[in-house]
Amino acid sequence: MTHVFVSYKRESLDVVKKLVNELKRHHYVWFDQTGIPGGTEWEQMINNALDAASALVLIVTPAALESEWVTYEYQTALKKNVLVIPFILETTTLPSDLRGRQTIIANSTNAFEDLMDSLPGVSRIWGDQIVSDSELDPQRTFAELAEANSDICLYPSSKLVGIPIKQTRYCRVYLVGKKNDTLEPLNDFQVALQLTTRNFGLQRLVDASYPHDDFVRDVAAHFLVSPSRQIRLYLVRGPLNQPYDQLDRLGLGLNVARESEWKDVVQAADYARSISKGRKMQLFVNGPAIMTYRLGNSNPGFYRYELYQYDYNERDYRCVLSG
């Protein structure tokens, strides 16, 4: 498992913790909070962590650049050809081996977004691999694609397969259908936004079965009332609502304070609509209901729509608005 290595001086710990907690909603992160003891064991630990790193985020302050250990960490990363990203917390002169590299100013408006865009996708919690457009032949079946990409697909049930087709800054888009059906577009298509989940432990995450697939199965069950029925479900999964190691509160969710996350969901849903070729969209939202209005405003007159709400008494979805 690859990760993002964060190098910093302990005087910046409070600020760095906040950054790391946000990063851990999207990427695996290697982060020391215990200080740096002397001895060769720690040096070996650093080397092992850098061997598995896709990038090193260097928290730049004058004190950090004077630190023997911080200098050792970023210079070792450079020697190992690990991407080094200077994240400027306090303005200072960069050493010669860091000059010319793209830097990120911590107090700039889009600092976190720029950092997310700079990090390699390989350390993402959900991975970075998707099925290429060339593989999405309408005559191929979901089962055929799943067999060729078994390690990155979803398997919500014995009948359903989810093919990853898009990775945005924060979200992942899957095309879900019945295993034996082809990818041929249908007139009706479903967009399901999974932006919240029940709590599960980290083991589910490690097993790649987190977040749970109940939402996908419930939406599919509403349409697959007969063996001949098909679905073309575009599932948009959002980021974690908490760092992956905070087991008691782990789920999916959007950061209310970060507008870019909300816009990213809209862009992911719009992408699904743009490639669907369908005429009627059936929208399901497991998360903030305001998303339904935002999506409607961004696509006026493009398609007929049906908005569904889950009926907990009947344990089924009900169409509550259409037009």
Structure overview:
The chain is an alpha/beta fold and 323 residues long. The chain folds into 2 domains: 3-123, Rossmann fold (3-Layer(aba) Sandwich), CATH 3.40.50; 133-322, no CATH class. It has helices at residues 13-23, 40-51, 62-66, 68-79, 111-118, 142-148, 202-206, 214-223, 259-276, 290-298, and strands spanning 3-7, 29-30, 53-60, 83-88, 104-105, 160-167, 172-178, 188-194, 233-237, 280-286, 304-311, 316-322. It has a 7-stranded mixed β-sheet. A 5-stranded parallel β-sheet has the order 2-1-3-4-5, sandwiched between helices. The N and C termini lie far apart (47 Å).
What layout of secondary structure does this protein have?
Layout: E1 3-7, H1 13-23, E2 29-30, H2 40-51, E3 53-60, H3 62-66, H4 68-79, E4 83-88, E5 104-105, H5 111-118, H6 142-148, E6 160-167, E7 172-178, E8 188-194, H7 202-206, H8 214-223, E9 233-237, H9 259-276, E10 280-286, H10 290-298, E11 304-311, E12 316-322
Parallel strand pairs: 1-2, 1-3, 3-4, 4-5, 8-9, 8-10, 10-11
Antiparallel strand pairs: 6-7, 7-9, 11-12
Q: Which characteristics define this entry?
A:
single chain; 323 residues; alpha/beta; Rossmann fold; 2 domains; seven-stranded mixed β-sheet; five-stranded parallel β-sheet; 10 helices; 30% helix; 22% strand; elongated
